[in-house]
Amino acid sequence: MNNNEIFKYIDHTLLKMTSPWEEIKVLCDEAVKFKTASVCIPPCYVKPVRNEYNDLNICTVIGFPLGYSITAAKVMEAERAILSGANEIDMVINVCDIKNNNFIFALEEIKFVRKTCGEKILKVIIETCYLTEDEKRRMCEIITEAGADYIKTSTGFGTTGAALADIELFKNHIGKNVKIKAAGGIKTREDLEAFIKAGASRIGTSSAVKLLSGQSADSY
What we know:
Blueprint: H1 3-7, E1 10-13, H2 21-34, E2 38-41, H3 46-52, E3 58-62, H4 71-84, E4 88-92, H5 95-99, H6 103-117, E5 121-125, H7 133-146, E6 150-152, H8 164-173, E7 179-183, H9 189-198, E8 202-205, H10 208-211
Helix pairs in contact: 4-6, 6-7, 7-8
């Protein structure tokens, strides 16, 4: 794959707690220059980015990175993000629900956020590093039933990030209308190509520009 082809898969990401506006602006300028799929930025930056970059595809995160905020808070976060100009929402599930075998709670929460997002894209982060194989399979079924657009591997803030084995698992258990986003720990150009070839439709990374110009990766 050439660089331009790879950039089309990239959610160009900057989600560090200390991210200043100057770095967000560089991220957005790079996204425009290289035609990435989106920028993935903190919710507090959605409105100022929309004001300055009218045509940019903006993704933001809710319930991030731990996922255990109450459902009403996630719904409000999603609503405000969309009103501020977000096109895509990446929500974190409540892993506590999964560990307590409360899968119905996870389903209902995703449904609430799905309804709030309307026609906007909803990606659901399941944080694979904390789940068993059975739990991952169950989340594939739940995300499909809830009508989300994507299942996403990781926040990039967990103990590990994306794994090719999880992409294979997702492919075998998600519905036909659900796509896959891999994020976290993607450190080389070879990683980018491998996840795309495995079936990821999006790659969340802060490092794509560096990797595709032969530099070392960032942390996310």
